[in-house]
Each structure stands twice: as C-alpha cells, then as structure tokens.
Amino acid sequence: MRLGVFVMTAGHHVAAWRHPEAYRGDSLAEYAQLARIAEHAKFDLLFAADTLSARIRNRHAAEHSAHNFSTALFEPLTLISALSALTTKLGFVATASTTFTEAYNLARLFASADHLSGGRVGWNIVTTADPESALNFGMNQVLEHDERYVRADEYVRLVCGLWDSWADEAIVRDHANGKWLDLDKLRFHGHTGDYLKVAGPLNIPRPPQGHPVLVQAGSSGPGRDLAARHADVVFTAGTIKQQAVEFYDDMKARARGFGRDPAKLIIMPGISPIVGSTEEEAKRRLTQLNDGIEIDVAVESLHNFMPDIGVRNFALDEPVPDVAEITQAQQSRQKLAWDMARRERMTMRELALWFAGTRGHNTVVGTPEQIADAMEDFFQGGCDGFNVMPMMFPDIYRDFAEQVVPLLQKRGLFREEYEGSTLRDHLGLERPELV
Length: 435
Ligand SMILES: Cc1cc2nc3c(=O)[nH]c(=O)nc-3n(C[C@H](O)[C@H](O)[C@H](O)COP(=O)(O)O)c2cc1C
What we know:
By secondary structure, the protein is α/β, with parallel strands linked by helices. It has helices at 28-40, 59-64, 76-84, 103-117, 131-135, 145-163, 221-230, 241-257, 279-290, 295-305, 331-343, 348-358, 368-382, 395-410, 423-427; strands at residues 2-7, 45-48, 91-97, 121-126, 171-174, 179-181, 191-192, 197-198, 213-216, 233-236, 266-275, 362-366, 385-388. The protein has a single domain (2-274, 363-427), classed as Luciferase-like domain (TIM Barrel).
C-alpha cells in the first residue's frame, strides 16, 4: 500500500482553521513537523497542491474560509524544496500548471528540486480549469477543457524530452584532458509542435530519478488518457468502493491500451480518516468540526467546485434537483458528488455541508481498527494506496499516523522501513532509461 499526505493550511475541512488546536499553515516549522510525522510513519510522499488565483469574488466566503487562498498558503515547489532539505527519505509532490508555466522553466524547476532532494520529487500535472487564474497571466480565459489536455500531452512529452537533454555521463569532468562536457551526449535537438516551441537543450543535468515522478489527477476521459499515457501516480476522489473499482479497472485498461505495464500506474484515491478511541468519540470530533461551518461558506465552496450548476440558487432544505449539465471543469468528481446527493436524497444544505467537510473525498470515521479495515477493504481491487487528506492538522493527521499506520504495518499492508532513497524507489518504479 502506498501512502501520501495532502497538506492544506489548517486541514481539508473548511472550518478546520477555526479549531483552537489547528495549525495556521503559514510557517516552515509547521510543515516541517507534518513532513517529520510522515517520514517517521514511512509515508511515500507529501503532496502540496496549488491554485493560481485568490478566490475572493464572494466577499463573505472569502472572508470566512482559509481554502480560497493557495492550498498550503505557499507556492508548493518552494515549500517542498524547503521540506526536502529537512528530511532524508520522504518523497514530495508539487502541483504545477501546464497552462501557466513555461515548459522550459517547469523542466528546470523540477530538475533542480530533484537534484537538490536526492531524487525525491514528483510533479502533479494540472491543466488549470479556473478562469480567474487566466486573468493573472495575461489571458482572458483558459483553453477549452479537451484542448487543454491535447496541449498538456505535447507539454508533458516536451518536459520529459528536456529532462532527457543530456545522457547521464554527458558531464565528463575529464581533468587530464581539460574536457568538461561531451556534446555527443546531447539528446535534445529542439521541439516545434502544435502549441510549443523550444530550442533547448536544458541547462541542467538529467535529474537523479531520470524523470521526477509524474502525478496526474484528471478524471474526465481526456484527463484519464493523459494519466494513462504518462503518469506514474494518479490521484483521484472516490467515495464508494464500486466507483473506485470501476475507476481502477478503467485506468489500468487504458494504461494497457497505451502499451504500458498497468502495475506501474499507481492509483491513489483521497481518504479523510478521523480516528477516535471509540466510534462515538470519532464522530464527536467530526461534529465539532462541522459545527464551525457556516452554510453560505459551504454553499460557496460547493459553487467553486461546480460553478455552472447554479447551486447558490437552489432551496437549502429541499432535495437537490436533477441537473442536466455537468460543467467542463471537474467533470467527473462533480458528477460523483451530484449522483451521491440524488441517490441519498440529500438536501442542498446537507450536500454543501458534506462537501465543505470532505471536499468530495472518502471519509472514514471510527476506531483505528475500523479505519484500517475500511482501507484494507478499499485496497482489495479498488486502489494501490491512499492520498490521506486529514480534516485538521496536526491532531487528526498525527492520530492517523500513530494509530492506524502501525495496524497497516502489522497486517503486512504497509512498509515498516524505507528500502530505497528516491521517490521512485518507494513507489517501486524504475528510473526511465534513455533510449
Ligand atoms: C487529489 C486531487 C488533487 C488535485 N490537485 C489539483 C491542484 O493542485 N491544482 C489544480 O488546479 N487542480 C487540481 N486537481 C484537479 C485535477 O487536476 C482535475 O482538473 C480534476 O480532477 C478534474 O478532472 P478533469 O480535468 O479530467 O476534468 C486535483 C484533483 C484531485 C482529485
């Protein structure tokens, strides 16, 4: 089983920041502590997501939710670079956008982070759906959904090509003959595609992992195809086992279709565990967090997730209506959430509160044994591991690491020691060869 922790200011629960024990999420010391907890528990990776705009259009929601800012309050690659210097084994994944980062620059940034961390870095490839981000980068709108993925495919190939600019032995450092670099080891001879043009080569040697680990979290058809072609790891949401199994089988089949070994595409759905010494205590912890949610903040966070459905206009205490349109952005997770609300006859209030608490991911509330049981069940055929999304840092996360992880280890599901030193080693992935 693979385990990651997804960091997010005070926690993934929208009201976590109101809890007196919650982290502020604004200092290296706090994130360093989260990384140390992960490394001590032998997690594979720590993930820092990103957005490229401050969502402040709705004044009330902006003033009452810490989630409108960048997810870890900092630019994630800067954050994980600092954290990698304070740890020795833990892997790190940062989000970067194919739409708003120049490919040459992105290749340089992740190559540098991979060198500086000793091969412990991964890139979460996102295309960025949010139109407000476009306004921060001299554009009026983002490209249409499917075209973003066509462009992203070219972009990812280009970045991998740039990382492969130089064969590993290109820098010869031949002191006797005074030769530093062997130009015959140059592998990149320029790229001119439908969207991107780069002369190259990269001015950084090939990263220790060859390619930093590629992560992708798309869930639409084009998003899944991008992952199945290029990704090493897929992050996803999934609230019920049957959906998880369908997603898992579909992704593995797509990988096979692209001529890949499906075992090398690692599927990690999100999970929000809340541990208590009894089930009642765990439920109390969730209720305490939920008591901090303001309904209009919850509705606004649901609206940000599914902007075109008009959730702000629906009556709060009536069952959510049937809606025909699923927007371009977040297509499939939206559908999952809406289907669940229809199936369980939830009111708009219930759906909004549920989303604000869980951000649409699987919530498991109970004793350490109950949580380990639920994870073990999901793991059988539904995933290769989990991206743990604690509702609050540090307590809810620390309790998971200290009380649930040992049970997973005892059951032989999770490592007791790191065997290698790179993120690829942890994930059982080979270093890509230069062909
Ligand atoms: C666990 C997880 C993490 C994600 N992290 C980010 C992120 O940091 N930045 C971002 O813009 N989108 C992020 N996304 C959104 C995805 O990249 C993607 O746009 C979304 O899942 C919808 O899929 P689609 O683009 O195929 O429609 C994340 C999604 C998931 C499930």
